[in-house]
Structure formats: C-alpha cells, structure tokens
C-alpha cells in the first residue's frame, strides 16, 4: 500500500530539460519529477512526459502502479511499448498532424542540399581553395524532372509528395496499403518496394520505426538503387543499416544521402559517415521550428492534463499502434 503523503498536484516524470514553452503551459498544474523517478517507487508517479524519446517498457510501467497517462512530445512512439501500456489500460498520447509540414520541408532541404551539393559548396566557398570561379566544378544532380520515391505515404509522406509536384518531379510511393484517393488527387504511382528503389532518383524515407521497417534500407536495398540516386531519411535512424550506407556512399553504389536521423544518434564523433562529403547531416531537426514546436507543446500538454484528469486524450495513440522500445 502507498503510505506516502500524496502531493496535491499530480506528479509527472519527464526527461528534460524541457522546452520553456512546455514549462509555461504546464505552469503549476503538475509537480515535475526527474526521469529517474521512474526507476523505483520512491515517489508515486501519476504521469509520464516523454520529451526526447526515453524508453517506456513493461518493467517501468509495472514499477508505476498509479500511472494514469503517457504523453509524448512528438509523433513517433517507437520508444514506448504500446502493447504493455494498452494491457495496463494506460492511455498514450502523441502529436500527429502538427509537424508534417515542417518535417516535409526538412526532407526537401536535405534532398536539395545533397543533390546540389549545398553544404559542400558552402565549405568550398569559404575555404582558401576558392580562388577563382570554375564553371566545370561541383556539378550536382538535377531535382526537377526527376523521379521521387516515397517510402511510407502517411501524413508526412503526403506532404513530401505535394512539395515534389511543385518541383516538377514524377512521384511513386510504397506504403503498407495503397492510397488510391491520394494517388488520384496528386497523380502518384504505387510501386513495389523493389521497383521504387530501381526507378527513383531520390528515395525519401517517411516510415515509422517498427519491426517491419527496422533495417529496411540494407546493402541489398542500396544495391537496387541507381548509382546516381540520393537517399533521404527523416524517419528514424534504425530504418537504415548505418554500416551498409557508409559502404554504399564510399563505393558509389549510390551518389549521396541526406540524413536527419542516424543509428546510433548521435553517431560516434569518429564515425566514417562524418567524413563523407556526399552526406548532408542534420541533428534530428524535422519538427524544429518555433511554430511547430509550439503546437507540439500545446497538444502534448493537453494530452497529459486530460489523462491526469481521467478524460479522453485529445490525440490518443491507437492502442493497437506498433511501438516497441
Ligand atoms: C521530435 C520526432 O523532434 O515527432 C517525432 O517523432 O522525432 C520529432 O518531431 C521529437 O519527438 C522530440 O523529441
């Protein structure tokens, strides 16, 4: 039996430091505890707020018998054991819909930067080596008129497709289920995974991380891509086998890559990928804009407070969703 005095405010364990917007929205509605409070029943925990993807597994949930809600700041819930939460009747909330545009924008930023050698060009333009303009140097790959393959046509994938149309690209996609209404509305083509890899000049990964997508882009998949192709990943690092990608970028199996996520994340500072000029890398910036982060804060705090009050969450993760840390 819990003999400890109950706090008048619900206690929420969060991995921080939290964004000031989140802190302002929480105000004094909850008592914030450090994530370490999840390690044992030193203090009762009423809610979990996952900010930077800490793992929430069955053992942790068993240690927190008073838990009423898990609220995730973000859409991906691969760090949360959904089956374990559902089995214990604990609702999980996330923030779909509010970050699609920002993440699709970043996918395009990476696509353009990797194909037109923007980062490499920036380095060269600042270096002492740039002493005279050479029209024959630093040629890149053309974006307009090329074919884009989207792996995972969810909300973010669809936003990527809309941007590609503006760039006069032909778009094919692969998804667990074909989406005929989006196909018809945007003029997309459904492809098998193998066909998409073989035909695309750009392959953009927009899938969630699940047992089906872990290691999806391995040496075999990379070998099916064009030697001129560019791979972009804005989903989760483990969808790509890191060592296989490094080998492919070194050997010219593919031309270039743009990664917002890696496995591990961050990469060790001496990792071979960090030395590759044909890689553009960002530190998980998909949703990192002021406006999007504010919306994520609002929705995740609304989910948290609703769950603590025993109310339906504004944005619940379906209990059958796949999440397994
Ligand atoms: C966030 C994300 O940066 O939504 C997601 O799944 O990965 C990103 O939008 C992240 O959730 C914040 O930690």
From TrEMBL:
PROSITE patterns: D_2_HYDROXYACID_DH_3 (PS00671). Residues 41-317 form the D-isomer specific 2-hydroxyacid dehydrogenase catalytic domain. CDD domains: GDH. Keywords: Oxidoreductase. InterPro entries: D-isomer_2-hydroxyacid_DH, D-isomer_2_OHA_DH_cat_dom, D-isomer_DH_CS, D-isomer_DH_NAD-bd, NAD(P)-bd_dom_sf. Pfam families: 2-Hacid_dh (PF00389), 2-Hacid_dh_C (PF02826). Residues 108-286 form the D-isomer specific 2-hydroxyacid dehydrogenase NAD-binding domain. One of its GO terms (cellular component) is cytosol. GO terms for molecular function: glyoxylate reductase (NADPH) activity; hydroxypyruvate reductase [NAD(P)H] activity; NAD binding. Belongs to the D-isomer specific 2-hydroxyacid dehydrogenase family. This is D-glycerate dehydrogenase. It comes from Tautonia sociabilis.
